[in-house]
Amino acid sequence: MRARIDEDAKGRRQVSEACLEPCAIERGMRIIGGKWTGSILWHLKDGPVRFNDLSRMIGGASKKMITERLRQLEEQGLVRRQVMDTSPVSVQYSVTEFGQTALCFLDELRKWSEELPQELDRTT
Amino acid sequence: MRARIDEDAKGRRQVSEACLEPCAIERGMRIIGGKWTGSILWHLKDGPVRFNDLSRMIGGASKKMITERLRQLEEQGLVRRQVMDTSPVSVQYSVTEFGQTALCFLDELRKWSEELPQELDRTT
DNA sequence: CAGAATCCAACCGGATACTG
DNA sequence: CAGTATCCGGTTGGATTCTG
Question: Quick one: closest CA in A to B115, which residue?
Answer without folding.
Answer: A24
